[in-house]
Amino acid sequence: MTPVPCPHAWERSPISIELAFIVFAIATLVVAGAGIRITTLADRLADRTGLGEAVFGGILLGASTSLSGIVTSLTAALDGQASLAVSNAVGGIAAQTTFLVLADLIYRRVNLEHAAADANNMLMAATLMLLVSLPLAAAFSPEFTIFAIHPVSLLLFLVYLFAARAAVSMRNRPMWRPQSTDETRSDDPDEAAASRHSLTSMLVRFTLLSLVLAVCGYGIARSGSVISAEFGISQTVVGALMTAVATSLPELVTTLAAVRRGALQLAVGGIIGGNVFDVLFLSISDAAYRDGSIYHAMTQADELMMVGALIITAILLMGLIMREKRGIGFEGIAILATYGGLIAIQLSMS
């Protein structure tokens, strides 16, 4: 499938390659700094609201740290760059799941997936696999749109809302729990820390930091477009390796910070929840892309990124179910190998 040629962002708003790199670097640093601050707030809000780390991380923290990526994909889609919009969304899923392996290396006491066992994280991982499968199915089906929007884009939102409701329900009325061991880290609220500030003030700060991430996403998208055009790099490679990794820095920072705080369910839930929310980039991008269905404008490289995201998520889900104790487990090694192979193939195709 060949993308429809469209005007590019750099043709309408040209900036120098030097300025593009400066904007990209500054936005990336700000994203990292904001990610550190928002982790502490997320942990306290999880305790204060009673949602728990897994639910709060999987829904609210995952959504907030994904705002920069949403703006990146949305901007690319508005500029007619379907491949950049898609690869930024799906490339972020692969990169962010790999971040869990880095967090696992830091948490040396036991395998992170063992210690952070939580039914909600497994539910969201299964939801993620379903969500990624739907755009792939759309790409291989006849093109059909309503006002240039594919029906799958609406279906993605409906599945996400169902999963979010199910996650909250499981938190309030769990049907089963993972077996507790000496190394299982339970989600025990720190009420003293959570009560130091009012709920309103924490929510306001959480929202402001989320907006900072969104603004930085716009800068990353614009500068990424210029870099892609200047060096002749394919949009898929730029999206999967540059913008996706840069806009995924909040997930990396919040995950590492959460692990150091001992908020393990928040760490795992934030990554999986962020990945689930990343798939919604495709719905938003499809609405912004005015030349038909964005799923039918994807390249073979974009579809490969989706398959890779499915494989990596399946491996993670297996790790969450099997709960090995030693080291990073089979899932950590398999995720690193899969991500490395995926990137190598993408570079060879560019």
Written account of the structure:
The protein has 15 helices and no strands. It is mostly helical and 350 residues long. The chain has one domain (14-176, 198-344): A middle domain of Talin 1 (Up-down Bundle), CATH 1.20.1420.30. The protein has helices at 9-12, 17-49, 53-65, 67-78, 82-106, 112-115, 119-139, 151-172, 191-194, 199-231, 235-247, 249-261, 264-288, 300-322, 329-349. The model is unreliable at 1-13 (pLDDT under 50). α4 (67-78) packs antiparallel against α5 (82-106). It is globular and about 50 Å long. It is 76% helix and 0% strand.
User: What class do helices, strands and sheet pairing give?
Assistant: mainly alpha
- Give the N-to-C terminal Cα separation: 16 Å
What's the Cα radius of gyration? Answer: 19 Å
Low-confidence stretches: 1-13
Please name the CATH topology.
A middle domain of Talin 1
Oligomeric state of this protein: single chain
Please give the CATH class: Mainly Alpha
